[in-house]
Write a structure and sequence with these properties.
This protein is mainly β and 71 residues long. It contains one helix and three strands; from the N terminus they run ββαβ. The longest helix is centred in the middle third of the chain and has 8 residues.
């Protein structure tokens, strides 16, 4: 499946993911789930000192491209 998915990830300065919100889903539930699921309960690397103590917001766009091999 091909498609583009855009999500908004909010994390604490220590890297703990607080939330994942779909901004632009693809038409494929599999791609949408494959983009959000890895962040559920995840912990990213800690952000540098001085990061906003209320959290860091990351907007992530993933372009999925299916490459078919010739037969």
């Amino acid at each position: 499946e091909d498609g583009r998915v855009r999500v908004l990830v909010t994390a604490s300065p220590d890297g703990t993911v607080r939330s994942v919100r779909m901004l632009m889903p693809s038409t494929s539930p599999s791609l949408n789930s494959g983009t959000t699921r890895p962040f559920n309960g995840a912990r990213l690397p800690a952000f540098p000192p001085g990061s906003d103590p209320n959290g860091v917001t990351i907007e992530l766009t993933v372009d999925y491209v299916l490459i078919r091999s010739p037969r």
